[in-house]
Predict the 3D structure of the following.
Amino acid sequence: MNAHLGRAAVAVAASAVTLSLAACGGAEGNDGRGAAERDAVRVGLLLPENGTARYEKFDKPLIEKEVSKLTRGRGEVVYANAKQDAALQNSQVDEMITKKVHVLIIDAVDAKAIAGAVKKAKEAGIPVVAYDRLAEGPIDAYTSFDNEDVGKVQGKALLEALGDKAKDGQIVMMNGSVTDPNAKLFKSGAHFVLDGKVNVGKEYDTVEWKPENANANMAAALSALGKGKIVGVYSANDGMAGGIIAALKAAGVSALPPVTGQDAELAGVQRIVAGEQFMSVYKPYAPEAAAAAEMAVALAQGEKISGIINQMVDSPTTKGVPSVLIPGVALTKANVKSTVVDDGVYTVAEICTDKVRAACEEIGLK
């Protein structure tokens, strides 16, 4: 995806969300309740883990801020993190039902395992918004990034980095966890771009997205293929890219092959600046969080969300889920400043620590 087109699309999505907020105003709603009563919504927010920096640093505070704005400061976000434990997340849904939240936003640890809990919530009269991952069960709405397109962005970037060397050796594909439906979409998008243009020597579905598992997989690939034969690595996210790069270094690979990533995590951005990781996918969390908050508040207030959505998506259990999908942007050395810095995700000081300061100066990041 062209970076400028991607950012324009994000701006359009964010504008659409902002414009539709006006429709939720007014002194009295369709159900006859006054504004103060309608605004006093309790939003249950269930995030999947805290090992990835984004959830606690970006998603949670952004959703809290949007809920507060949409409810004139009267709404409340009741939060729980599952710490990558699907059974714990199911029990957290039960707790949210007991606490009588008005709506749930769920980023599922395991999209399939959460289906029964989603059904319980619905039976209790609590609408459910699937956030970032398409949970199974009778969900009411969904927001995420265009995940198949993310895989295509990664694949195109890897091909660009390989250039004429695309078929000179073999690439390793390090996909995400099979419990995450997004991983399947990233994988599909990447294969759409890469198939027939590269030789895939080894491919892995990485358990729980863990960097240490990606590290072990990469060590196995190096042993099987030979370190001189690997010309590139498709990594589905930045955390795994870190584990992959550590394995390459441990094997004595001095000229690192291009490695992809996703999420624009700070460590990933620093590796990109340093030339260790070729790219990441920057996914602006603000429009995703805004869409989730807006749909959740509207559902809690009994309002329609047809003016918010931009397409319909099918899950394995539910057809035609009203959805807001947002594009991602390829992040390389060339656009660190115009993406994560200009958008206020990280400051130059946060990125350019002593370890990468010289590399920052080389690309004009000061």
